[in-house]
């Protein structure tokens, strides 16, 4: 890519996920005039770096408020600026015609539905960092390409970055951003991704590097997941509960009757009277204490693994990583089952 607003960039080669928690400085990339055009982590809000947002919907307005509060100059690009001028200016932003607005920054945030991607001009967004914040609807065909990859194909000379789509417009408008939200970010352009990671951290989010744009589908799936953090805990809890219930059922109700039958004695239905109270009661207790043990055991495994490797910076196996992340929900589930045991 020729020198311009974002200069020459290198393709991303990291397809894995890693939490970007370091506070390292990301150097600025000079634009065609030799001026620094992107924000770095050690710059102050008083420099008033400009960000252009295409779209004035709920998320577009929320991002405008968020960036303005963080000291950015925000210009909203619109085909009809007079329509939303008061709304934008009331929250500290500016609004201008699309053609003029996109020339005022090399960072363009596209906050419009994916159906409107066709209205974007490849020539006007050439050599820009284009941030896709769109989310696919529930009825979107999963066999189709992710929205960010479709946008990159439409804008071949732009550096498309997938970010900010997991944020709540309501939380942004209420200012609930400081360290409270992780922002998954991916792009084929490492320098463009670093710019957005740096901006996300400056605004107050926790950026998470998802590697190349091929991982955009995973990011776009996040808003559609329902209690995903409970999945491992619920599956384990159900399996343990079913096993414990069958164990108690055979021990208290079935095995005594099998013994009666082997002695030519009639089936005793009276032992099932304790099923609702005693059997279920003990099943919940067994499941609770098993889940509690499962909360502590992966930490021990992780400690021994780190001692064996001689470092705490190597990545855990995927199964252990999932287990460690599920400890909090397993603990909550263990507590709920323990309460029913009393």
Features:
11 helices; Rossmann fold; alpha/beta; single chain; 11% strand; 342 residues; 2 domains; disordered N terminus
Question: In summary, what is this structure?
Answer:
The protein is α/β, with parallel strands linked by helices and 342 residues long.
Structure notes:
The chain has two domains: about 210 residues, 3-Layer(aba) Sandwich (Rossmann fold), CATH 3.40.50; about 110 residues, no CATH class. It is an alpha/beta fold and about 350 residues long. About 45% of the residues lie in helices and about 10% in strands. The protein has eleven helices and nine strands. Helix 8 packs across helix 11 and helix 9 packs antiparallel against helix 11. The chain has a nine-stranded mixed sheet with strand order 1-9-8-7-6-5-2-3-4, with helices on both faces.
Question: Secondary-structure blueprint of this entry?
Answer:
Elements: E1 18-19, E2 50-54, H1 58-69, E3 73-78, H2 81-90, E4 94-97, H3 98-101, E5 107-110, E6 129-132, H4 147-154, E7 159-162, H5 169-173, E8 182-187, H6 190-203, E9 206-209, H7 216-221, H8 231-262, H9 275-309, H10 318-325, H11 327-341
Parallel strand pairs: 2-3, 2-5, 3-4, 5-6, 6-7, 8-9
Antiparallel strand pairs: 1-9, 7-8
Arrangement of strands in the largest sheet: 1-9-8-7-6-5-2-3-4
What's the shape? elongated
Largest sheet: 9 strands, mixed
Number of helices, counting only DSSP H or I runs of 4 residues or more: 11
Helix content: 40-55%
Total number of beta strands: 9
CATH fold-level name of the largest domain: Rossmann fold
